[in-house]
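Much of our argument rests on the idea that a fold can be written as discrete symbols. Part of our work consisted of pairing the sequence of a single chain with a tokenised description of its backbone. We regard such an encoding as a compact summary of how the chain folds. The amino acid sequence and the backbone structure tokens for this protein are reproduced below.
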Amino acid sequence: MKLSKRGEYALRALIDLGIASELGWPMLQISELASKEKLPIKFLEQIFTQLKAGGYVTSRRGKFGGYSLARPMNQIKFGEVIRLIEGPLAPIRCVSQTSYARCSCPDEIHCGLRMLMFDVRNAISTILDRYTLADIVEITLRKYRRDKVAPPFLHRSIPLASGFPEKRGSLRSKRRAAVRNHFSGSRGSETNNRPPNVR
């Protein structure tokens, strides 16, 4: 399995939406995401069309519109998103669980290569199906805190009205406020500091 640029940007866009949501901005304009990731808006719109069809994001039109996550972050698994964008995780089709196709090997049952690729597929899917968007957003924010770097969207210049009003004093609202307050004194800016690689 090799992640294409489309797959890479889809995952990064979801992480961006997750980070923004944790900082109190559940909806972002596509121009903000395109600017942060340095991508053409048209390309990002195509990716979001796929993510929306898969039920991972939702959109709202208009001046204060944009994109937001369509389901809780702990219900978005990376393996599912990659399968949506890229297709099967298996390196060869004869070991795929979702789109099996017989290969050219005359004796598939005793094929050593197929046995090896089963292990490869299982290792990849075990990791990608275990991690959720919530896990990766938490790891990313932790690294920002550790490095004393302000995450993207913290000091947002576009005052969009939230499409998801929360009751004042709600647990989620308090948690978002705590995350924002923690970063409010951080050095750096969201435009000059790109997120660290999550390993």
Q: What stands out?
A: Residues 158-168, 186-199 have pLDDT under 50 and may be disordered. Residues 5-22 form the longest helix (18 residues). The CA atoms of residues 140 and 197 lie 8 Å apart. The chain has two domains: 5-76+132-183, 89-128.
